[in-house]
């Protein structure tokens, strides 16, 4: 059985705004909850006008209040931006309000550009180098034993808030393995080292009180529609999103265009290369196509769970894609050898 989860950046579409985006994000979370998606995670980004998940913990609280069963998490909280003590208090509060439904995914990057990173945390570089120690500090605040410490996050003590290590390199895989923590690879934008990272993680995993055996999630781009042609058209918003990211244009999520090949050919060579690298782990098509491709991917990479990232311009198209992807995963789970 391969659980399916959803990663959201709360991207603001062209001719939209943050308020409308939050409403749509809520509807996505509610549909994912109804469809039995396992997790709904929100990413932390800053200094990007087109990304509305800047106050990630606040948005997580709202999504948890609007859903019933799905796990709400961070994909991730950028740890160098935050005090471990404050994070423990915030996530301990969330876990008190929504018991056994909160995940804490942690990343090492700033989630923004250098200037904004320094505006958030003056010693960001130092904090990023202390990532492993700060993970340990967080674990300490969540432990029952911390009740006797001089510095406490009392509301977090003995709370069930699983900590996940997020990354896009073998370095993050090694850290997750050494600490016996579950590992999530950001294949939706940096897939190049994914297979090597998963292998290193499994080969060097040390069982811990948190996890007895390795557990991996692959985050990948998935866009589904009734036909391969329509899915490819919808995916052009994804490719424009990454083009805007590498060229730093600051554009909001763009409507789809008719031709993906024409879009790619019109990009400057360097941008085209970068976008191709970032989108190399993308699955786009009808249910028939996705059954075959995701079956091969899950088997080849040996992932325990799939997390999808689906930047689709039209909200109804995105809701439908969410339904179709769940049908694909259900088909694979019910009969791995079947075809639609």
Based on the model shown, name its key terms.
340 residues, alpha/beta, 8-stranded parallel β-barrel, globular
SSE blueprint:
Elements: E1 4-8, H1 18-34, E2 39-42, H2 56-65, E3 71-78, H3 84-97, E4 102-107, H4 114-120, H5 124-129, H6 131-142, E5 163-167, H7 170-179, E6 183-185, H8 194-204, E7 216-224, H9 228-247, H10 260-266, H11 269-278, E8 282-285, H12 287-301, E9 305-309, H13 315-334
Parallel strand pairs: 1-2, 1-9, 2-3, 3-4, 4-5, 5-6, 6-7, 7-8, 7-9
Helix pairs in contact: 1-13, 3-6, 7-8, 9-11, 12-13
Concise structural overview:
The protein is 47% helix and 14% strand. With 340 residues, it is an alpha/beta fold. It is globular.
Count of DSSP H/I helices: 13
What does the largest sheet look like? Answer: 8 strands, parallel, barrel
Strand ordering within the main sheet? 1-2-3-4-5-6-7-9
Low-confidence segments, ≥5 residues, pLDDT <50?
none
For the termini, the CA-CA separation is 18 Å
Radius of gyration: 19 Å
Question: What would you call the structural class?
Answer: alpha/beta
Rough shape? globular
Structural features, described:
The protein is α/β, with parallel strands linked by helices and 340 residues long. Helix content is 47%, strand content 14%. The protein contains 13 helices and nine strands. It has helices spanning 18-34, 56-65, 84-97, 114-120, 124-129, 131-142, 170-179, 194-204, 228-247, 260-266, 269-278, 287-301, 315-334, and strands spanning 4-8, 39-42, 71-78, 102-107, 163-167, 183-185, 216-224, 282-285, 305-309. It has an eight-stranded parallel β-barrel, surrounded by eight helices. α1 packs parallel to α13 (315-334), α7 runs parallel beside α8 and α9 packs across α11 (269-278). The radius of gyration is 19 Å and the shape is globular.
